[in-house]
Amino acid sequence: MKSSVPNPKICLKPVLRYALFLAISVAAGFIVLESLLRFFHVRPNVDFAYLPDFWTDRKILGIFAPNQIVHENLLIPYTYHINNQGLRGRDVALEKAPGELRVLVLGDSAAFGFYVKDEETFPAQLETALKEKFPERTVTVLNASSGGYTIKDEWLYLRSKGIRWNPDIVVVAFYSNDVLDLLNERSMWEGQRRNIEISWDDWWFSTGRLWKQSLLCKHLLAFQLRLRLWAEKFNRQGGGQPENKILDRAVENMQQLNEEHGTETVGKAWQAYESYLRLTKEFLDGKDIKLLVAAFADHSQIGRPDWTEPQSTLGSMCGRLNISFIDLLPYVRNTEKPSETFLLPRDTHPSATGYAIAANAVADFLYGWPPSGQEG
After folding, report:
1. Pick from 5, 297, 264: nearest CA to 122
2. pLDDT tens digit sequence for 282-309
3. What is the pTM of this model?
């Protein structure tokens, strides 16, 4: 008598066939839809700069994958270009021309230039201002910045890649969140390096990268952003006030730096900042390269003349380390409308006007460069 118990292998065959058919159908549907979006040039208004793969990273001196045109619409729509070496801005030559003045700007999103045009960023406007100061020289200002960077990331980039640009001057563009960001478990540079290092043999990571670069993924992100904007609009029409977590976090950061200045947490962050700034200074001194720390103003300091941190502590630190320092806060406060130097009320980053003020101040400083110490 034959057993009535079904063979598990026979039972699994239809399930496996169905799963295989489903996987092939989804993949084919994705390929067809992605092809149609690309064929008809249907691009969303949201995009993100992506990192290079393992092999490309060895060939470039920048941070991002080269030759990108990126459209972002997170808060304020803007477009930016990643050049042939993986930095924001125009294409640049690796070899330095005879007599060329080359400036390397290190910084976070404030130096990168969130929400402004390529030519409106701090490094781009600094290049324009320096060309006016030195009309007889070729001037190149490199924007080696990335959102989320602080002095640790800038030091690691400078040591591994940035120094190969052979700069005459390195400008560290300091922003108020650079101090407490050092308390994060992993720095932005280390996270970027990890993603790049595993990309050469990690199939799943590579597949995820392809998905994030697809137009279909970007359209889904754009739809998600539209839903959020619609929700904010509905909230305003209903008499409510939409949350602006970016503004709230920025104010909380400044409150901690100014009102909890003597606490152990803030002190630990400042110690970390000084240690990496010292490493940067010693490294550049050994190669006879000048260093300038430029401290940007924070929007929350406009109506708070008593909030002199973090510029006060940073200026004293630079004095101890014999590093040239310029505080850009007085330049902002002395304008007729200081609030217009920021992208308020939507965001806390500097505006094109704010970057112009900073660029002109730094260009004047570099033109009459003092031998050492703080700004006079």
Report:
1. 297
2. 999 999 999 999 999 999 998 888 999 9
3. 0.81
